[in-house]
Amino acid sequence: MRTVKRLQPFSSTIFAEMSQLAAEHDAINLGQGFPDTDGPAAMLAAAQEAIATGQNQYPPGPGIPALREAVAQHQLDHYGLQYDPATEVLITVGATEAIAGAIIGLVEPGERVVMIEPYYDAYAAATAMAGAERVTIPLIIDGDGFALDHDALHAAVTPETAMVVINSPHNPTGTVLSDEDLRAIAQVCIDNDVLVLTDEVYEHLVFDGRVHTPLATLPGMRERTLRVSSAGKTFNVTGWKVGWISGPAELIAAARAAKQFMSFVGSGPFQPAIAVALGTEMEWVRRSSAGLQRKRDLISAALTEVGFGVHRSEGTYFVCADPRPLGYHDGAEFCRDLPARIGVAAVPVSAFVDHPEQWTHLVRFAFAKEDTVIEQAAERLRALS
Ligand SMILES: *Cc1c(COP(=O)(O)O)cnc(C)c1O
């Protein structure tokens, strides 16, 4: 293999393998987390209009002013968080580039980046690209949900920590961190004077009346926190790759130094369309989130009926299920069998961890799919019982 050592662990992904298997067996793909319906019509029209009216060249490096203003306004309206659109908001090529830019721009080689395990793979890859070291804080399986291990949090975050990455609502478990968790994270980050990167791409997709609280709203946190979000999950446009990062100007400048030489800019005609969506389509998002809650209920009920141990999903596109009652003890093996066996694809949670012990069995299903698709998947899953 010619790939540099630090990236060798990232040269192939289980998601690609499962999607390939899904395609081979014409399976319903509940592995990859993308929606199968389009976002708000006004937003789609605004992108077409932007292309038709010649907004097809490089936008300004930090993003078009209208979008930076809309991102700042959105955070003020929803959370009372104030960011200067000129210096404290940066538009990126999806949340992925925001994450990479922040880690590469702010973490020195050899420094430590702490993340919650299971973790979204981009945090680990960006940490490796920065030549930094990954340290994990496990979630613990707690009844039908998951809990943050506060002892592990306190052990992991030390004065040697450069950055803590927090993802809530959490992919792959669907966990929304509690106020108590957020307070504990804030305290330990303040005590050790570390930076925090919060991945909040599912900020609007929370269920059962829960509210999402950005960590940056806690006392003493705004000045050390970089908040990341993206249009992809909020507005069903994962292919547009429009993301953003907000925080103190000095931290944004660091992320921008890296971002400039990864892509310089991206998503030209999509930027004005997302500005429109942030301004006028939050009612669409509320309906979308209510629809996702119903889809969560559909898939959870179907999995329970088949005999899976089903975990509580409090937000996101995902629910985790335990196939051990059906006789499968290895989630990865189960996922490799599933497309050929019944025509459904899922991904093993072990793909998101360094310490597989408590995660070997667990499987993640994505439910941001049309109801008919979920019903069809449910029908196929019944063949397992
Ligand atoms: C999908 C996802 C991302 C990536 O977002 P993009 O805007 O597509 O780059 C980042 N973090 C989490 C937790 C995700 O699920």
From TrEMBL:
Its cofactor is pyridoxal 5'-phosphate. Residues 26-381 form the Aminotransferase class I/classII large domain. Gene3D superfamilies: Aspartate Aminotransferase, domain 1, Type I PLP-dependent aspartate aminotransferase-like (Major domain). SUPFAM superfamilies: PLP-dependent transferases. It comes from the Bacteria. Pfam families: Aminotran_1_2. Its EC number is 2.6.1.-. Transmembrane segments: none annotated. GO terms for molecular function: transaminase activity. InterPro entries: Aminotransferase_I/II_large (IPR004839), Kynurenine-oxoglutarate_AT (IPR051326), PyrdxlP-dep_Trfase (IPR015424), PyrdxlP-dep_Trfase_major (IPR015421), PyrdxlP-dep_Trfase_small (IPR015422). It is an enzyme of class 2 (transferase). Keywords: Aminotransferase, Pyridoxal phosphate, Transferase. This is Pyridoxal phosphate-dependent aminotransferase.
